[in-house]
Amino acid sequence: MRDAPDPDEEDFRNDPLVRIAATIMDPLHGKLVPPSPLTPLQLIELAARQRRDTVRRRLKWLGAPLAVAALVVVVLVTAADFFAGQRPAPIAASPADSPAPSPAAPPAPLPLP
Asked: What percentage of the chain carries pLDDT values higher than 70?
């Protein structure tokens, strides 16, 4: 949304001397513009081609960093899996050394005050 123009700026733009100065300083003032050698259909096709090329160029610039990031993630995940398999297994006590597990008794209820 565009802000409302400043009243001072509007006065400046509508000032007759400013308009005369802008007209005098315009390099193309009073010169005829030659007709375009292209038809309107050719201009539309040219604009569409330029838009497609811009989209392709942006996708190319965006695609390369995304591909590198994906490659880094794959390498890190693969390395983590590889090194996870290299860790020594925790030493477990032999079954003869550990006491037999007893069934857990339910906790005794607390007395009410």
From this structure: 79
* Contact status, residue 16 vs residue 8, Cβ threshold 8 Å: no
Query: Whole-angstrom Cα distance, residue 77 to residue 70?
Result: 11
Cβ of 37: how many Cβ atoms within 10 Å?
6
**Looking at residue 103, what is its pLDDT?**
67
Q: Per the confidence metrics, is the pTM higher than 0.70?
A: no
- The token pair at 93 is 């006590």
Segments of the chain scoring below 50 in pLDDT: none
30 dihedral zone (left: phi>0; alpha: psi -120 to 50; beta):
left
How many angstroms separate the most distant Cα atoms in the chain? 107
**How far is residue 46 from each of residues 38, 51, 58, 103, measured CA to CA in Å?**
10, 9, 18, 83
The answer to whether residues 40 and 46 touch, using CB atoms and an 8 Å cutoff, is no
